[in-house]
Specification:
Radius of gyration: 14 Å
Pfam family, one: AHSA1
Number of domains: 1
Family: Belongs to the AHA1 family.
Shape: globular
Distance between the termini: 43 Å
CATH class: Alpha Beta
InterPro entries: ASHA1/2-like_C (IPR013538), START-like_dom_sf (IPR023393)
Order of helices and strands: EHHEEEEEEH
Strand order of the largest sheet: 1-7-6-5-4-3-2
CATH topology: Alpha-D-Glucose-1,6-Bisphosphate, Chain A, domain 4
Number of strands: 7
Protein name: SRPBCC family protein
Length: 138
Amino acid sequence: METQKVKVQSAINAPLKKVWEAYNNPEDIVNWNQASPDWHCPSSENDLRVGGKFKNKMAAKDGSFEFDFEGTYTEVTPYNSLSYVLGDERTADVRFSESNGQTLVDVLFDAEGTNPVDMQREGWQAILNSFKDYVENK
């Protein structure tokens, strides 16, 4: 069965350098990496290089559930793009481009087979929206 690709994107009112750094710096990641206010990201590790690993702990604020979102980088082009493979072999590609004072962030990821694709798209988009809010107000 072919894996379905899902795309989310956001136009962020900030320069590319600021967007790239906030997207990849663990001290920033813990401030934006959640899909809703009842979740948070208590810890983040990021070895931003090909073969490097990242691990972000995602947790419900009430303590009812948590998981590690982790993967290995397969491509890193600073201030342009990065790609990674998750533990279940799904892949994701993130592209950054600057135009007219905004930075466009495009994320293309493989859908997993458990949850509806629309639900996955909404979750990844909510995290990207949280990122946008964080960067624009930082």
